[in-house]
Design goal:
Largest sheet: 7 strands, mixed
Helix content: 25-40%
Radius of gyration: 20 Å
Order of helices and strands: HEHHEHEEHEEHEEEEHHEEEEHHEEEEEH
Strand content: 15-25%
Structural class: alpha+beta
CATH superfamily: Clavaminate synthase-like
CATH class: Alpha Beta
CATH architecture: 4-Layer Sandwich
Number of domains: 1
Length: about 350
């Protein structure tokens, strides 16, 4: 058994303690909103994805942006920024405003293999599996890709995204449900260390994950799976900085293939304990229209409760998502290149590699 020690610092928190804190909440002031409106007016009519940072000047927000970056990387790792004027703008203009803001906070990276830079998170209906990836599981049931699951009204298990920071701007909220669940991964590490240090060791071993629905073009379980899969530990530490990359869906997809190493009994039990501990230590963050949630993927798991829409009353859930590589990001352990491509601190990294057409 490895001689591991507890992690420390503000990123180690329990939901029962942090849920009533104001540390992770910021508010756009009227002056901030006025600056966003002025910047938006300068790019009216321009496609949002063509807007560059210089086109969207926000120098009066420099102090706020620096504070957010520092809290995400060196603080608790989560943030809710309130006050985006979503009610007074079209979806197109909100994309322009959010994208322009995002270019000042970090560098947006691709969210799928065909160049998506901003995803509209909404329930797209029964076709999502056919459109975004589905296969059959070992029992003959339908197994949806991670991409497809995001675009349903179902719950999402605790996971991380392939980026330093995930940004979710709430435009409209559901009639019922759709609540974010967040857990500190360093706190999960410490809890497992205290209770089951043997299983903590297992979480530092390689778990094979499939790129099904993300980068791979073959189906999960097909003969091409090994070529579109990668091994990576769930937990890692470098220079005292912790990181976790985890999606049970990608692990399960890899396990459908005959040519991928199977999980050991210890690895299976470690996942069960990981998920139970995340649920025990999490808290719920409710997003209202105009709220921007920012999550440091290295130290936070996030999930979602199921939701019900009612479009007739304007309660059909819509969030805009950006993946941001951060200028003050941490160095990552050796071996993480398979996922991030660049593991040194302060480098642009993450997102999904693009395929030539």
């Amino acid at each position: 058994m490895t001689n591991r020690t507890p992690l420390s610092g503000p990123s180690v928190w329990q939901g029962k303690d942090i849920k009533d804190s104001r540390r992770w909440i910021r508010q756009l002031s009227p002056a901030h909103v006025a600056e966003l409106e002025r910047a938006l007016a300068a790019v009216k009519g321009k496609p949002w994805q063509e807007i560059e940072r210089a086109d969207f000047p926000l120098s009066p927000l420099d102090g706020l942006l620096a504070d957010i970056r520092d809290e995400l990387e060196n603080g608790c790792g989560i943030m809710k920024l309130r006050g985006f004027p979503v009610a007074s703008h079209s979806e197109d203009d909100l994309r322009r405003m959010y994208w322009g803001f995002g270019t000042h906070l970090g560098t947006p990276v691709f969210q799928n293999r065909s160049g998506e830079l901003m995803r509209a998170i909404r329930d797209e209906g029964a076709h999502v599996g056919r459109t975004y990836g589905q296969t059959r599981d070992a029992k003959g049931g339908t197994f949806l890709s991670s991409y497809a699951r995001t675009l349903t009204n179902g719950g999402l298990r605790f996971h991380t995204d392939r980026t330093d920071v995930v940004g979710l701007l709430c435009v409209r909220q559901a009639m019922k449900g759709g609540v974010s669940t967040l857990a500190s991964t360093p706190a999960i590490h410490n809890a497992i260390l205290a209770r089951r240090p043997d299983l903590l060791d297992a979480l530092f071993t390689d778990y094979w994950r499939s790129r099904f629905g993300e980068e791979g073009t073959g189906k999960a379980g097909s003969s091409t799976t090994r070529a579109t899969a990668y091994p990576l530990p769930i937990f890692g530490v470098r220079d005292g900085k912790f990181t976790s990359h985890y999606s049970l869906t990608f692990i399960e997809a890899a396990q459908l293939a005959d040519d991928i190493p199977k999980l050991t009994p210890a690895q299976k039990e470690a996942i069960d304990v990981l998920m139970a501990t995340a649920q025990e230590l999490c808290f719920e963050m409710t997003l209202e229209p105009g709220d921007l949630q920012l999550i440091n993927s290295h130290v936070t798991y996030h999930g979602r409760t199921p939701f019900e829409d009612d479009a007739s009353s304007g309660h059909d859930r819509l969030l805009f998502r950006l993946w941001l590589s951060m200028p003050n990001n941490r160095a990552l352990p050796e071996g993480h290149e398979v996922l991030w491509r660049n593991i040194e601190a302060g480098r642009v990294r993450g997102g999904i590699a693009q395929v030539a057409i």
